[in-house]
Amino acid sequence: MKFWASDRGALWLLLGATALMLCLGLGSRELWGAETRWANIALQMLQSGDYFDPYLKGMTYYDKPLPSYWLITATAWLAGGELGHWSLRLSSVLSAWLSVWLVYLLGEQLFRKGTGLIAGWMLATTFYFIFWARVATADILTVCGVLAAVWWYWRGPDDTRLTRYLVFFLLLSLTSLLKGLIGFILPGLLLLPHLLQEGRWKRHLNLRLCVALVIAGAFYMTPFVLSHFYGAPTYGQSGLGLVLRENVVRFFQPFDQFGPIYTYLIYLPVYTLPWAPCWLLALWVAARNWRTIEPNTRWLIWGLGLLMVFFTASGSRRSYYVLPLVPFAQLLGAWWLTRRFAERNAQGRFGGKGWKIGFGAATVLLVAILGVIYPWTNGGGGAIAFGDTVKLEASKRAPLNEWRMVMIEVDNKVPMYLQTGGTPFYYVQESQEFPRTGDSAGLMKWLETTSGEHWDPKRTIIVAQYRTGEAVPLDYLSADHQVITTTPTNGQRMFHGREDQSVAFIPNP
């Protein structure tokens, strides 16, 4: 009983430290990179009540399947209906936390005792894994889904019951609904070497597998069918058409995100720092002892190799596409570490204290960088302070839910900070012929003509964006509006970096 209590305590220490690294300072960092798109799309769903037609800045944007947005809107609903940093990023954070747990389970299941714990610590203290886990995109959701499917398979690789197949294929379908068809492809490639071994695949060719595939296929199609029947009839983009474009056409005929053929040879070691030397040494040790190493280790290496070939074969390459390989690379590194510890223990030279110190130091460093320093650099100004100031000044004139917002080519992240509980934002593209000179009456008239709606000039806030050094757009509104602009963040003050700025015009009383 004491033995199990000790194991349970070690696991909870790992999961607790992981939660600290994932959550500390999560709500005090501005939106970054691709998560601005998820925020804008989810926000428009919440504002309009239309959850079947994704829009980005007022324009159709069915770039990813709907469930990745639904996860965000669901957490926002649980948080009171307003989209915030926590509700936006919570699904990624939970997926990362579960991924660490799944890596622990896989390591303990496939290799000698202690491998899972070491693999879990290696993954939890991998800088880029934790970094992307705190970003609201579908990438870490995909990592978690792939790990879940592989873990479920290894719970009974020779089990042919319908429930085993059904759960496995439902996991694949759910993962594919979060980002794309790689949710089916990646687990399949990983498990292919084990299925081919000893003709294992033959015992899985049965009617139960076909039934499970049909049910999982219907589950995968459900959001697209709902979007077709309940979405706006004028919506221009097809979800399934985008799936084909993003997953098949892009693989063979990439139209963006080009990278050299050696992209992942560089970025897999980078994305597994600081523990990259462990899995690189593991490869060398495994190559020297290929015939005598455990079959599960050979499977892991073959699976990683197939994933590397698949990603390299695609002409569309980006550094973070390598994220699904990271947990399995760290699992391989953990295999080497536990093997080395066992050899040292057999020689009477007990080891293991060093890695505990290393993981502890890495945890403290990640907490300091991502949980304290990085959020501090985002504080003191920027979009967060801009949104707070605009809402404060507007609330002095009227309740926030009475205001309407006009966004003129504004960065995706700014609208999230300007939620008022009122009507949805009205987006104006920079390419539109809106009055760039004149007066506020002329702009209001143009808005009414363009939108076909009535606009109350005393309850309309105009928000625009410009770059440092440029003239403030719509400056003529300052004659009868209060002007609020973004102020630099702590990081921008320190490093003198400030490019995109926003300006809001609130009508004077």
Automatic annotation (TrEMBL):
TM helices/strands, residue ranges: 86-106, 127-154, 166-193, 205-226, 264-287, 299-315, 321-337, 357-376
Keywords per UniProt: Cell membrane, Glycosyltransferase, Membrane, Transferase, Transmembrane, Transmembrane helix
Name of the protein this chain belongs to: Glycosyltransferase family 39 protein
Main location: membrane
Entry EC no(s): 2.4.-.-
Keyword Glycosyltransferase listed: yes
Annotated InterPro entries: LipidA_mod_glycosyltrf_83, RgtA/B/C-like
Gene Ontology molecular function: glycosyltransferase activity
Membrane topology term: Multi-pass membrane protein
Organism, as annotated: Pseudomonas fungipugnans
Subcellular location, record wording: Cell membrane
One Pfam family cited in the UniProt record for this chain: PMT_2
Chain ranges of the Glycosyltransferase RgtA/B/C/D-like domain: 63-221
